[in-house]
Amino acid sequence: METLGYLIDGFGVALAPHNLMFALIGAFLGTLIGALPGLGPANGVAILIPLAFTLGLPPETALIMLTSVYAGAMYGGRISSILLNIPGDEPAMMTCLDGYPMAQKGKAAEALAISAIASFMGSLIATIGLILLAPLLAKFALTFGPAEYFALFVLAFATLGGITGKNPVKTILAAAIGLMIATVGIDSTGTQRYTFGVLELYEGVDFIIAIVGLFAISELLFFIESRAGGGKGPMKVNKLSLSWKEIGSIFPTTLRGGVLGFISGVLPGAGASLGSFISYTLEKKVLGSKGRFGEGDPRGVAAPEAGNNGASSGALVPMLTLGVPGSGTTAVLLALLISMNITPGPMMFTQNADIVWGVIAALLVGNFLLLLLNIPLVGIFVKLLSVPPKYLLPIVTMVAFVGIYSISNSAFDLYFMVAFGVAGYILRKLEIPLVPIILGLLLGPEMEKNLGHALTISNGEWSVLWSSGLSITLWALAIIGLVLPVVVGPVLRRRMRAAQENVD
Amino acid sequence: MKCNDRVFGLLMLVLAVAYGWGATQFPEPFGGGEAIGPETFPFLLAVVLALSSLYLIVKPDPGSKWPPMRTGLELLIAVVVLIAYVLLLQPLGFIITTTLAVGTLCWRMGAAPIRAYVTGLIAGIVVYFLFTIGLDLSLPLGVLSVLEGS
């Protein structure tokens, strides 16, 4: 019952008027960002991080705002899936399958409302799961020694590509690059490493700059290359007519989807894409011929939506309890925590209980706000979205610049950001994933510290890293995480594509 | 187009070697003799990077196409605009540089020039007042500071 008390305190934090206001702003901005093609949740949160700093927000408010952005961005991705059959990000792919047919039948508003309700249910279920599971996992994590943590970090990198990932070697390569960037600066022994005598590098590379550069600026360059500046076609939304009976009929679907999504969110390497895919496939199996999947069945919208929102809340479990994020967006949220001097991990549940539970409560509040925001305001969102990216993206980029500039007041940081942007563009062209680079930057110092502690305890004996049962398990999982995508990945990807093509 | 990965792998291999060599050049930390020095972790990373770039050289993926010359030029313009923005931010002030940068980017992304620069001007003014009055953060006014009459 201790947990319940914390949760009530958490709601106290999340429902404080100013926090509620920032949650609302976050949900609104997030929806907008998520709806822009290509600008997924990770990018959205990254662009808004400088804003959180410039506003001088206290940590819990900043986190609440950004979790709302996260939830909003997940939701915003659906608008273009449903109205235009263009998924805003990968997990939204499955929503196209029944969402677009519904829109074609003139039921776009219903599809959007159902996806909002299903998202809310998915997050609700996953948040309950998070509340139950996180304290247990945090307690368990207290038994981890430095060697186990080192193995855990390796596991995080190994599974980051996800089971649907393409080339695990590129994930490793990217992780190594990120970790190498993290070693720049003065280390714990006072040695200067790779600073080349440049004063600005003494404190290392600021990961906020790296994140905004890699994500936001490379996105601008991609837009220019694809000449997508003109924006999307006209979008129309009918007047909503949804009965309680219809809402009731998707209820069991959202329940199943939420649970499945949560599980795939918590498990390393599964993630939101798999969550929405599994939920959709299961729903199709369960309902069999009773459903009209692929032709605009509301349950076909509800299942993947509940699944992927369940997964995105589930992904917070490893991030909050172990300090090891399982997805790009949670990695960006981790960046925010670290830069606010909060070390995620088991200790956070005792030391910063108000923040942890405030964020958990904010997830629920944020999703509820989205539900309220989206059903009446969807028309406004659709209008705002018809502002072509050729106007929107340059402005967004400049806001990111100014955000960074107003924190540091240093032109050096801005040049660095442009350089990261160009590098991000080239790496994405080469299909090198960017998230492991970010994660490497974030986890590098901790990883080195744990390696150091483990080796100091063992007097330099490297075998200490795989001497306990737990660490051996973690290493084994890491190896499976690397090998499995090579074996199973192509099959899964083909199935997802096949499901997509059946509709077209 | 397999040369993409090959060239990148080669570059990363060079980086790995340079990085590893760099680690040997660290001065011995004061009091030395610890189980792990400042060079241990970098060595490990250099090995990982070298191995994975070797793999890329041996087994490259079919790469994606690079943009044609014209698009490449547009990209270059965008990068130059961003660099120029940083360069001119202090001397010209936020509103003017933002007008120029946002305007140029919008224009190059396909907006009509006048609309593009008007968008830039409006964005510059709105963001300036949002930051200075709303958030109480100082942004450089640059040459426009004469308007303040101080």
Automatic annotation (TrEMBL), chain A:
Keywords: Membrane, Transmembrane, Transmembrane helix. The chain crosses the membrane at residues 20-39, 45-71, 111-134, 140-160, 172-192, 204-224, 259-282, 322-343, 355-385, 391-407, 414-444, 464-488. InterPro entries: DUF112_TM. Residues 20-439 form the DUF112 domain. It comes from the Bacteria. This is Tripartite tricarboxylate transporter permease.
From TrEMBL, chain B:
The keyword Transmembrane applies. Residues 7-140 form the DUF1468 domain. Signal peptide: none annotated. It comes from the Bacteria. The keyword Protein biosynthesis does not apply. Keywords: Membrane, Transmembrane, Transmembrane helix. The chain crosses the membrane at residues 41-58, 70-88, 117-135. InterPro entries: DUF1468. This is Tricarboxylic transporter. It comes from Chromohalobacter japonicus.
